[in-house]
Write a structure and sequence with these properties.
Elements (H helix, E strand, L loop, with lengths): L1 H21 L4 E7 L4 E7 L4 E7 L3 H4 L8 H17 L5 E4 L8 H11 L5
Parallel strand pairs: 1-4
Antiparallel strand pairs: 1-2, 2-3
Helix pairs in contact: 3-4
Length: 120
């Protein structure tokens, strides 16, 4: 198990370093996926502050979803983060998938955020 965790952490750090180099000056939209929930944040790395966040444990979403670990929940979180980011004046970000494959819930979240106004 620790070998898998170490490889995930290495992959996450490697991807994040490449993205920072390519997208200097842009805000980062980062995803964390657990077995039960999905979390997303818009982070300003220069100031080390979270500007907008959404997850399946938010009161706004928890009422409308049955389960926090499926594509429907990821779509709801993607829509909510896009609305919150645009309300905060954020339109352009870069997508940090945190070492997860761009597949399933991660892809559904990204597509929903794009459809609701975020550019990445």
């Amino acid at each position: 198990m620790s070998l898998l965790r170490n490889s995930h952490e290495r992959r996450k750090r490697r991807i994040r370093a490449k993205l920072r180099h390519i997208n200097a000056g842009r805000l980062r939209l980062t995803v964390h996926r657990s077995n039960c929930h999905i979390y997303v944040q818009v982070i300003d790395d220069e100031k080390a502050k979270t500007l907008a966040a959404a997850s399946t444990i938010d009161k706004d979403i928890k009422k409308s979803i049955k389960c926090g670990s499926n594509k429907d929940a990821a779509i709801a979180v993607g829509q909510l983060i896009a609305k919150r980011a645009i309300k905060a004046g954020i339109k352009d970000v870069y997508f940090d998938r945190s070492g997860y494959l761009y597949h399933g819930r991660v892809k559904a979240l990204a597509d929903a955020a794009r459809e609701n106004g975020l550019n990445f």
